[in-house]
Amino acid sequence: MPDISIDAIGGGSFTGYLSLPKANRGPGVVVIQEVFGVNQVMREISDEIAALGYVALCPDLFWRQEPGIQITDKSEAEWKKAFQLFGGFDVDKGVSDLVSTMNHLRSRPECTGKVGTVGYCLGGKLAYLMATRSDADCSVSFYGVGLDALVDEAKSITRPLLMHIAEKDKFVPPEAQAKVKAALAGHPQVTVHSYPGVDHAFARIGGEHFDRAAADLANERTRTFFKTHLG
Description:
The chain has helices at residues 40-51, 76-87, 91-107, 122-133, 174-184, 212-229; strands at 3-7, 13-19, 26-32, 55-59, 111-120, 138-142, 161-166, 190-195. By secondary structure, it is α/β, with parallel strands linked by helices. The radius of gyration is 16 Å and the shape is globular. Residues 14-229 form the Dienelactone hydrolase domain.
């Protein structure tokens, strides 16, 4: 599938990887990248989502720093680069770019109009923020980082949010997880699933901490969630 151009709010443009369903029409899903850019992993995830009948679009959120980043988790140099990009990332502008992506999807003839989001790692944080700051129809957060500092925004969630938390997440200590769970407990729009014994990025196929059983369960829950809220 091709990379397309998306107009940014406030000027400029960036690219996104578009993957279409077999029927060439369906609800939209914004796929939100990890810290490694719109790499092969994110493209394959987008293709898998498209195969389920959705119009999947994964935007390049690092374009303001360095467009076209596609690195892996396989070398120390790439990890160093990833953390450099993460450190220089402007979260507010990232959310703005995701809103631009969502609006682009909704305007495409292939899209029925409903659009959800799903994000991993950094993308998991941003999926949570799309639930608090945008009118996305639903959102899914996989092992989002830094959410404990954002729990006050939970009061702004008005549409369904599904969260997958890795209990052994090396980037999210137990006290941070507890704060997030406590803040979201009982929220009518939020469903939180916690996965014991697994580390960050347990759903990344080929990753160091990939856990087949946990990944399959989280992905099945995500598929059901999207079917329920997007159709």
